[in-house]
Amino acid sequence: MMAEKGTISINAENIMPVIKKWLYSDKDIFVRELVSNGCDAVRKYQRLVQLGDAQEDGPYRVDVVLNEAEGTVQFKDNGIGMKAEEVKKYIAQVAFSGAEDFLAKYKPDEGESGGIIGHFGLGFYSAFMVAKKVVIDTLSYQEGAQAVRWISEDGMEYDMTESDRDQRGTTITLYMNDDEHDFLKLWEMRSTLEKHCGFMPVEIYLSEVKQPEAHKEGEEPKEDAESAKPQEPQKINDPQPLWLRKPSDVTEEEYREFYHKVFHDYDEPLFWIHLNAEYPFNLKGILYFPKIKNEFSASEGVIKLYNNQVFVADNIKEVIPEFLMLLKGAIDCPDLPLNVSRSFLQNDGYVKKMAAYITRKVADRLVSEFNNKRDDYQKYWDDIHPFVKYGCIKDEKFYERVKNAILYKTTDGAYLTLEEYKAKNCEEGKDAVLFYASDDKRQAQMIKLYTDQGKDVVLLNTLIDNNFISFLEYAERDAKITFRRVDAAAEGLTEEGETDETMRLALEKRFRDCTGDQELEVQLKSFKDEDMIAMITVDEQTRRFSDMSKAWGRDLNLPEKRTLVLNSKHALIGWIAKQDSDDDARDVCRQVVDLAEMARQPLVAERMVEFLHRSNLLLTKIVNG
Length: 625
Known about the structure:
With about 625 residues, this protein is an alpha+beta fold. The chain contains 19 helices and 26 strands. Strands 1, 3, 4, 6, 7, 8, 9, 10, 11 and 12 form a 10-stranded mixed beta sheet that branches. The protein has a 5-stranded mixed beta sheet with strand order 13-14-17-15-16, sandwiched between helices. Strands 23-24-26-25 form a 4-stranded mixed beta sheet. Strand 18 (about 410) and strand 19 form a beta hairpin. It is elongated. Mean pLDDT is about 85; it is low at about 10-25, about 95-100 and about 110-120.
């Protein structure tokens, strides 16, 4: 073959979208691209062997070799190799897809994937983001082929000559830029390979060339130090990831080992879902429900997206619904291109179907766990309920699938479905009211008022619960279901009967004057608990809106509609009604209000100091008569 110089020609139709946004956002992507090319070359050769057009000649592998002293990284494969005209076609014409050209000629059998990963034109040029010089040495599998060497220092012009390579396959040598020598470090390259290539379909090995130790003057060189030698290669990947196997062939221990290895999470996953769809799209994967240590750690979930076992990215919400980002898992989707814009994903019909399929499978698994393993399901409900509730809010179809598997934990530790709560606590034919507490310790007295009447109180104490119950009231609007916190009303705690309106108005004026709150509403009710003096209720909707604004860092200081409910049967209320507005009566009124407030939430600092001081004065007066 004659030496040849040339200029890279551009396939403009394919390259223009990339020019607009350069090649890739992360430089380490060149590792993925060049290893993918090597895997492609091997898979192409294996396909030829299957067809009887080539001889079996394994084992097949891709090697990455580091040489820090020379500043090089080599990517070696024993795949199909290339002839001179193929090098010019696939390398010198940027963005001409060698994989597509090969598949057009050697189409896989119906229902079978060709297993060819990438687009060998464009991906190769990611090397020039990190290298000042790139050399390709390649020898085609075809008998009588001449080995070829291709050299370029800028990706625009090249030299092509004969090579002394004598084995089938390709070696790509990158002479790294001075500021990219971190990639020559074994630990850095291993980390990059594990991230991008940990499950590629051909065995990948990493090694580094160690230079001989310098010998002192007058000493003979060591026998094994005559030249630099590669160290023992480390195997990087698992060519047969768990998601490619049939679920029935995978043990629970293997699922757990995969979880620990891939996600570096040494807590046990709660359970998992093995995805396997072939129509109308090809998708395989495993999703794990991790143990959530607290409601903020949910954001730590990671779902890795692969294309034919090549890592694409973490957490692409266009493919994986946002609420599923609380999970951990791996999804392999060969129908998606490796490098694609978010706008394409948002508008692609297949992508939307894939997202809907994943959501449906997750919902079905939750329902299956509830129906078949309820005892276990209840044990990890506390861990998964933020995810389930968030999913319901984000996707009403998800809610419709899982609503019968949503549990409500009561303050006494029982787990009830919505229907079970209604059957146990609500009168048939009447609108359903579910009583709940947001803090079972601070609201213990209020909770007891309801549990003493035989009513269950549900515990809703996470950030998402305010949003969730608002969503649920809307979603179940036809069933007329409402949630009411234990301090929202005296419903169910008082007896029916007429109120002495004159006495109520007199008490309302007195308590408004004592507290200085002229908006305070006072009700006079007959409490079922005769020892109860008073309680303060706050309108559910205004309080809920105020709580949500505070949770999102926007304390709007909204006024809350408060009501002081007094027990008409309690002797102290009768005594207050008969007293003149003297200091003792005012102190007792303030004490009644503060005690009622403390039953629902702590007093703020100044008010607590005043309450303690007043308590001491009242006790002293009692002792002194």
